[in-house]
Design brief:
Largest sheet: 10 strands, mixed
Radius of gyration: 27 Å
Distance between the termini: 59 Å
Helix content: 40-55%
Shape: flat
Keywords: Membrane, Transmembrane, Transmembrane helix
Structural class: alpha+beta
Protein name: PH domain-containing protein
Number of helices: 15
Number of strands: 17
């Protein structure tokens, strides 16, 4: 669905004197952003991969170079801070360098020099990034021209950071437990590895707690006094984040920054009604909640950016800032939407913003083209009774990669006698997980007939009526089907750059386009009813065989 004009806020919802953040002012703000090499925007997957690599490097130094387990874990957590929580680097870098200096006499000079070089260089990069924040703050504050306003929900309790706080406490306790049981391992290497894991997990817990404190502190500061306000435009992207644009960028050409927002910040106090109306109120509330949830899921699963909406930004935007957003709702019949940030502001450079929009346009164009081709093909061919899709070569490749990884893991851990019990248990658990996933990758099947879809599963084919089907799409590595009350997904390799440069179409994209066309146009659906053999068989027998075979193989190798 497209909109020629942004969805407008009611005039009464806009604070008096609130200024537009124009493209010219926003351009001045973007000009003081730090360079790309300061890790201004890093994907979660990249941050996780870099942290894992750093932990492996530290573990190698522990086993071969005698590095303290604490230092190995601290180095991996430090890399995570550089990429995702730069505020902690100011205290972390000096402490880590001091610890490296203490252990330097017992370490090969090359190992110490490498760690010192990485820590020092990252410290300098973070300094450049944090220094740019003050310039961003000043430019945005100038654009507001001194106009401030109280937050619309300033009297509500602050819930920012609650989830991260609870998560951090749990992870920290897990790290302490791991350290308390480190002495139970038989070999010295296992004990050192357990201590490194304990310090790393505890470091992750401490990082979550620190992130919770930063978020809550900034959210509280935003409520204590009237906050600077700016009129902007916002749009929800396909990943669930919110893109912020200049107030005069009505075509959403240049996103300024992204931020994760949520509006679920109010207690449901209306359920405390008593008397004869309580049952009716509960039923009506449940129905309303279900409809609202369904509406939100429809929008999130649409795989296209949302409409451009007028909004008021409370708070000064800069890298890492907390903000509050009052925006027009996607449904014009609903009142303005009040959302608070669940993550920091992440600016987009000019080139990064353009690449982001180009990728979105290319994805939308490909989706429309594939769906139109599916419609044309169905219109030129005679109606079919049943349509079927099944696992292909990419799915078999995904299964082979999963099996190869399991075999490598088993061989590497059992190459020497005396394997620790925890390794044995972990290998068995991972093998059982693989036994559940491999049959789905190899034997999944989707069958379409006039009544709906039949999707294979462990317990057998599941029927999805056409009226219950909500969306079919490919998101990164996964093909996702969502219907009323449930969903299904299968994953296979995906190389976006190869598809873009070579003009290739991922099989999941073609399947999703064809099913989406059938979902929206009943005339394209099959005309007959499928039989039991066409729908596929339960996959649990193959899962049981694979799981038992894995357990027997592990016990034999031990």
């Amino acid at each position: 669905m497209s909109y020629d004009e942004p969805l407008r806020l009611p005039a009464t919802a806009i604070p008096d004197g609130c200024r537009d953040w124009t493209a010219g002012q926003a351009g001045v703000w973007s000009a003081v952003l730090p360079p790309r090499w300061t890790f201004l925007r890093v994907r979660r997957s990249v941050a996780a991969g870099a942290t894992t690599f750093a932990l492996c490097a530290g573990g190698w130094a522990v086993l071969l170079g005698g590095l303290w387990p604490f230092l190995a874990a601290a180095f991996a957590v430090y890399v995570l801070w550089v990429l995702a929580r730069p505020e902690l680097v100011w205290a972390g870098a000096p402490a880590l360098l001091l610890a490296l200096a203490f252990q330097a006499p017992s370490q090969p000079w090359g190992v110490t020099a490498l760690f010192v070089l990485v820590v020092g260089a990252a410290w300098a990069v973070v300094a450049v990034r944090l220094r740019a924040r003050s310039a961003q703050y000043e430019r945005a504050l100038e654009a507001a021209e001194g106009v401030t306003a109280w937050l619309p929900d300033a009297e509500e309790p602050v819930r920012r950071g609650s989830f991260l706080r609870n998560l951090g406490l749990v992870v920290l306790a897990l790290g302490v437990l791991t350290g308390a049981t480190a002495g139970l391992w038989t070999s010295a290497d296992d004990r050192r590895g357990a201590w490194a894991a304990a310090f790393f997990v505890a470091g992750l817990g401490a990082t979550a707690l620190a992130s919770a404190w930063f978020g809550r502190h900034r959210a509280v500061q935003l409520r204590r006094e009237p906050a600077p306000v700016l009129r902007v435009l916002v749009r929800d992207d396909v990943e669930g984040s919110t893109e912020v644009y200049a107030a005069d960028d009505v075509r959403a050409i240049r996103p300024l920054f992204t931020v994760d927002l949520t509006s679920f910040d109010e207690d449901d106090e209306d359920d405390e009604d008593d008397g004869a109306d309580e049952g009716d109120a509960e039923a009506d509330g449940t129905e309303t909640d279900d409809e609202e949830l369904e509406r939100l899921l429809e929008f999130v699963e649409a795989d296209t950016p949302g409409p451009v909406r007028e909004a008021v930004l409370f708070g000064v935007p800069y890298d890492g800032a907390e903000v509050r957003v009052l925006s027009a709702d996607v449904d014009p019949a609903q009142p303005p939407l009040i959302e608070w940030s669940t993550g920091p502001v992440r600016p987009l450079s000019l080139s990064a913003g353009r690449r982001r929009i180009e990728r979105e346009k290319a994805r939308e164009a490909q989706s429309r083209q594939l769906e139109e081709q599916a419609r044309e093909l169905a219109g030129t061919q005679p109606p079919v009774a049943v349509r079927r899709w099944h696992a292909g070569w990419l799915d078999r490749l995904a299964a082979a990669l999963l099996v190869a990884w399991g075999i490598w893991l088993c061989w590497s851990w059992f190459a020497e006698p005396g394997t620790a019990a925890w390794k044995l248990a972990l290998v068995v658990i991972l093998g059982v997980y693989g036994a559940v996933r491999v049959p789905v990758k190899l034997a999944w099947r989707i069958t379409a007939d006039r009544t709906g879809l039949w999707v294979t599963g462990l317990r057998g084919p599941q029927h999805v009526p056409w009226e219950d089907l909500r969306s079919v799409r490919r998101q990164r590595f996964e093909l996702k089907l969502r219907w009323r009350g449930d969903n299904w997904a299968v994953a296979a390799p995906h190389w976006g750059w190869l598809e873009r440069t070579r003009g290739l179409v991922h099989p999941y994209d073609a399947l999703a386009a064809e099913l989406s066309a059938m979902r929206t146009d009943p005339a394209l659906r099959p005309t007959g009813e499928s039989t039991a053999p066409e729908r596929g068989r339960p996959l649990w027998p193959l899962t049981v065989v694979l799981a038992l075979g894995w357990v027997v193989a592990v016990m034999a190798l031990r």
